[in-house]
Fold this protein.
Amino acid sequence: MSLEDHVEELASDLDVDKEEVRRDLENLVNYSVPMDEAKQSLRRKYGDGGGGGGSSGPSSKAIGEVTTDDSNVTVTAVVLTSGRRSIQYNGDEHVIREGELADETGAISYTAWDGFEGDLEPGATVQFGNAGVREWDGKPELNLGESTDATAVEESLDVDAEVGGEAALTALEPGDRGITVEVQVLECETKTIDGRDGETEILSGVLGDDSGRLPFTDWEPHDAIEAGASVRIEETFVREFRGAPSVNVSEFSTVTPLSDPVTVAEDAQQMAVGEAVESGGQFDVELVGNIIEIRDGSGLIERCPECGRVVQNGQCRTHGSVEGEDDLRTKAILDDGTGTVTAILDDELTEQVYGGGLDEAREHARDAMDKSVVADRIADRVVGREYVVRGSLSVDEYGANLNATEFDESTADPAERATALLSEVEP
Ligand SMILES: [Zn+2]
């Protein structure tokens, strides 16, 4: 088919002026867009009833079909979540709204600038005309700005996604906004930080529910948030903190005390090592595997008295030549066949696996005239055995490190364990 044939076909299918179709099609083909794709894009452009004789406005799109190649789209969607956040822009303070929209084909994140307050109530069905599309983390996101118009739609859409943003802690992911959680405050401390307007106090600690635990920060301390309290927190957002999700409470969040205490899961979520590493980080997780090696920097070590970093040959990376302080630590490689992590044991857990405290370790090293005997004994005791390790997993440029809070030799039958793991992996 010649270009002219394609033009004929499109113009008659779409009931649009031939000249206009030819110009658009030539344009796209000149930009090396393959013919099929070019035609598809014109069908989308004129697809909603002919485009009023050639309007150049964006076409209506299903959310599932919005890609980062789109510049502007019109979507009709149900507002799933809406959370406010204050930002500094050109020296002024703006309150933006962020959340998710969905239709029958999928969900998409959005950022809305001033002027959409009444349109972004969770549950409302709205047509957003001329919404900008931008790329965030490789995915398309909608930008509702000055050129976007919002029109309430009468009939509601049948969406699969949950409206309102109520979520269990372990279901949260960095980037989630407008989220409501019901939790027990497990730990809470006041910290002073250097904020935008000088020194300011914030709260930080740990929240729990029946799914698990996550760290939190309250940037505008709420009285109801205190250790032991059970609370409902509306309008939180989720950020990444040390490789795991963290709940952020802001000036826009509503905190309501709950009279019935929220039950908190005793056990950490159990995962296969590979799955946990793949997830990018877990605040509280239980991994089971064999210790295959004890890494350098284990046993009797020295730390910088200034910063606590490990000192090598009397040198701190930041503070130069220092008088190191003795400490005990273990870095053990844990492997379950799906992946490996380095389990990091603090002084107390190291005392357990070494079978002695700092004084014994010093004496042991002095007698042997070699510090490495401490790490060697630890290796003798743990390498080749299976352990259940609970802790906080971070995955970054330093590798996959599990800061252990519990380190116990596994009592389960290895065959049983393998069967359980397989049943998790297989559908
Ligand atoms: Zn130092």
The domain at 57-164 is CATH 2.40.50.140 (OB fold (Dihydrolipoamide Acetyltransferase, E2P)). Confidence is low (pLDDT under 50) at residues 48-56. The chain has nine helices and 22 strands. Residues 304, 306-307, 309, 316, 318-319 surround zinc ion (CB under 6 Å).
